[in-house]
Amino acid sequence: MKNIIILSFLLISICSYGKKYQNKYAKGFLIEENENDLKLTIFDPFDYYKSVFATYNLSLENKENYVSIPSKRVAPLSCPFVAFCNQLNVVDNIVAIESSKYLFNKQVYNNYLSGKVKQVGESHIINSELLLSLKPDVVFVPGWDKGINSCKTIQNAGVNVVYMFGYMEQHPLGRTEWIKVVSLFFNKLKLADSVFNSIETRYSNLVEIASKEKNRTSTICGGVYRGIWYAPGANSYLATSLKNANANYLFDGYKESGSVPLKKEQVLIKSQQADVWIIHAMGEPYPSSISRDREFYSKTNPWKNNRVYSNIGSISAWGANNYWEDGIVNPDIILADYIKMMYPHLLPNHKFVYYKAIDTKLL
After folding, report:
1. pLDDT one-digit tens code per residue, 175-193
2. d(CA 99, CA 122)
3. CATH of domain 19-199
4. Are 19-199 and 211-362 in the same CATH fold?
């Protein structure tokens, strides 16, 4: 993949950057600083972060071949990037979104309804002509293939396109740490660092609380899609979060960092050992597969014991699921939800935020 992209603003730095910021969890980027200039290096996750995917040189001064910061007009083309902008207090700088369908942020959604913010895509297919007409200073896009291909025209027109690979990070705090990448383009690295450190502290405190439980809850995660059960691999950020909640993740033997396809028969055997089942949905009141595959699900132990949970605790009036947006900047709250599922006595005052118990007796 690294050979198919040549950024017009990809340059070899002409100065020596004196300070390197050490990431705490994220593997996918490096930030360097020298007086009024910054250098952002993004590494290729498909090459195990061994090679450079892209380099961006930024400056507070108006320099040729540098990205001028702070940016005034921004297009975050995935909902998690909107959450980053919200934490950095720059949502008023947003001029374009990919799709309003998954947008939860009320201020940005209202700006979309009023026409201040334009929808420029759907399903990662970008209307390049419309986006270019909005004259964004920077466009943040997810790093998967469709996003890259859709942005070629924009990139070739000289717009600063930043490819975000936070979704490839194996630790939930690694995903959150990508807020620092977005912050650079608004000259708000100090704020991003402060926000991240606060999140990390709360997360670490919850890990400590969960670690005190000696009787671990066995958990399965995932659901059926077209006859195949897809579960988070043991090295995924989601599985990491479950293990940080001191759950006994029953698919821990599959070391992938993405989803793992499993046969129903395999899952059914594991499910007899499970106490809790967690299933994820985009925005529907209940994951659509629950009704479609009810006969299979009803054979699992969590279903029989009514301990099934889904990430449908925070849905907007227009159907957007906040788990997929603000969840990236609130991994501590997601962790608290997991602990509440597993060991409610450890967090007696916590109320579910992103998750909700599914009453299987009513299905």
Report:
1. 999 999 999 999 999 999 9
2. 5
3. 3.40.50.1980
4. yes
Q: CB–CB of 310/280 below 8 Å? A: yes
Query: pLDDT tens digit string along 25-71?
Result: 999 999 999 888 999 999 999 999 999 999 999 999 999 889 999 99
Mean pLDDT of the chain: 91
Give the 3-state secondary structure of residue 325: coil
Q: What is the mean pLDDT of residues 134-160?
A: 85
Task: Tell me the β-bridge partners of 140.
Answer: 76, 162
Residues 52 and 297: beta-carbon distance below 8 Å? no
By CB atoms closer than 10 A (0-12, 13-18, 19+), residue 346 is middle
Distance CA 276, CA 10 (A): 48
Q: Which of 224, 330, 201 is nearest to 280 (CA)?
A: 224
Q: Report the run of H or E that residue 90 belongs to, with start and end.
A: none
Amino acid, res. 104: F
The ranges assigned to domains in the chain are 19-199, 211-362
CATH number of 211-362: 3.40.50.1980
